[in-house]
Amino acid sequence: METRAPKVGVVTVTYNSETVLPDFLDSLAQQVGVELRLYAVDNDSHDASVAMLRAESRLGFVAIVPNDSNVGVAVGNNQGIELALQDGCDWVLLLNNDTVLPGNALATLVQVAEENGLKLLSPAIEATEPAGTIWYGGGKFVPLQGFRTLHGTAGQSVSQFPKELVKTGYASTCCLLVHPAVFKSVGLMDPVYFVYFDDVDFAVRSVAQGFEYWVTPEVTIIHKASSLTGGKSSPFTVKWVSRNWPLIAIRHLNVASKFVALSYIQVWMFARLALRRDSVNVFRVRQSGFREALRVASAVPPPRLSYEATNGQTSGSRLGEGDVRDGSAAEA
């Protein structure tokens, strides 16, 4: 009997992504050994992103969710995840569209995960600036530093990638293979973060539920980091990181640990100003983000899968081949 190829739902969120989509779609079109279904959630792009997705004819299935506003990465991922699970995907791959994958990436990730009984798996990720260096090869978060994430080998030569499958403390959703069981147990991404730290929050909740993160060197992908957000020092990144860093500490730590973490974040911000790594204007943006985090309601739980509230059935109708669904109808 012929074995059915695993069905992998690739979920990506686009926002003015036309400069990176050609390489991204080319690499998806080269995937072998899996039934690939692309769920592209567009957050009201004002470039050719949606047109490029609609013109894509090489993939067997493309579902486009065109939102009429920028609802954020977390909500966008949730929309795609819901649709992928509704369509019976065996695995969900959360994937940035500023990445390039080798042709065997999806099949190999699934094979490694299934052979080792894993539920969360990341490939090794190579940076482009500078080329030949590590963007991610394993990492962890530090609760008393506000769940600050550390990629231990980031910036080193790719020769320092792990040589075998290794357990790790945290992996970003730049490229993360997730088994449906994780979403059923942990829930979806928390929309409160909009962008940045949503993947850290998901990791904190996943680890608390007993799930383990792993990274395999059998697949290496390329990540054009910050090509769409302008880099770590862009006003967009500074705003959201400065808000969401203290916010995750507020949401997940007890009173004493929260005090330590928030104090650490403030010392870090003042140190950057004192050392002239941040201008006064950037410091003000950071402080504004910090204060906003203190005002955000911290008791609202992350969303659950919609089928959990409907006796095992997802809400809404199934997508047909190549259908375009209105974003408001698909939103988690």
From TrEMBL:
Residues 308-317 have a biased composition (Polar residues). GO terms for molecular function: glycosyltransferase activity. Keywords: Glycosyltransferase, Transferase. The keyword Transferase applies. Residues 305-332 are annotated as: Disordered. Pathway: Cell wall biogenesis; cell wall polysaccharide biosynthesis. Residues 320-332 have a biased composition (Basic and acidic residues). CDD domains: GT_2_like_c (cd04186). Residues 10-151 form the Glycosyltransferase 2-like domain. Belongs to the glycosyltransferase 2 family. This is Glycosyltransferase 2-like domain-containing protein. It comes from Cryobacterium arcticum.
